[in-house]
């Protein structure tokens, strides 16, 4: 059945069938050929795949992001970011990265991050004479932070798959997320300096204080979410509910830019977006269950260990596998298909499950910048009105910076484990 499972999966992939349906159809084919499994098991596994309290955080964080975007929060964050770093060479590129970092602390989704910030920043950069390809590349790389800086939907899914604490995964992503964001901002400033881009906006303490005060409710959202988790006040799922309520109150009664009549469309938008992810989780859970009953993860792990038991080489191989998967497979599906294969290697890696979670998520975040399935690239291309091949020419340096950060996160444990250890 193993051969049938994977051959049918690749066949449907190559035929252009959407990822969720490819996984579902290949699982169905394997069921038919197995013969001993009752068809009702498919329904049971589909239901069991999403019957999880932690997964409730997925639609809630998505809805919170949409509410904050419509409630004027993203605009206020960008105005504060411009006052903070807009005076640097190529200031708008730095503003884009900083704004993406702040919004990442709200949305939990890279695509939402790229769309919310990019819809404002890419036109602003182009109107001031920036190369549209550079503007798109900066926004795409900044958007990838949406899954590294907590709250992060891929981290929620990883916690669901492995039983790891989602709260600790969120906290573990803070330092790597800030480190990646600062390095991307530094690179964007250096590129702008080299290309002769200069900003005429002088730094003003008064403007910084005014914009900070205007954005205080927006900046308070990540503090409430992470502060509550760190303080043990609520779980990650409860934090998602708090974030949604917070966004609703701020948008309706404080900023007053969110209208009651907007709520039904925002709820529907959030449900549709979340249902796509949850449908992939449901179908992929059937596929991963079939892999488990065939003992495929253990056999793959055994095969890898037969090649080498050296920790450095094993981590290098895992990163290569995840980077390749992130390039060709949607993030949620990649998590559900690969995490059961990687986790049996943990004893040989002598690696904490929390660190592994961050490494996996950073790998898949890099995959969002590589064609053909680089969602952040596609969103940025759409906003900048450029072709995919045009933005690829400018994304290379940003990918190199991300990979260097990945190496540090993989081999230097304190980057991911120091803050979670404080929770203990």
From TrEMBL:
It is found in: Cell inner membrane. Keywords: Cell inner membrane, Cell membrane, Membrane, Transmembrane, Transmembrane helix. InterPro entries: DctM, TRAP_DctM. It comes from the Bacteria. The chain crosses the membrane at residues 46-68, 80-104, 110-127, 134-157, 169-193, 223-254, 266-292, 313-341, 353-379, 391-412. Pfam families: DctM. One of its GO terms (molecular function) is transmembrane transporter activity. Residues 6-412 form the TRAP C4-dicarboxylate transport system permease DctM subunit domain. GO terms for cellular component: plasma membrane. Its main location: membrane. It is a multi-pass membrane protein. PANTHER family: SIALIC ACID TRAP TRANSPORTER PERMEASE PROTEIN SIAT, SIALIC ACID TRAP TRANSPORTER PERMEASE PROTEIN SIAT-RELATED. This is TRAP transporter, DctM subunit. It comes from Thermodesulforhabdus norvegica. The lineage of its organism: Bacteria, Pseudomonadati, Thermodesulfobacteriota, Syntrophobacteria, Syntrophobacterales.
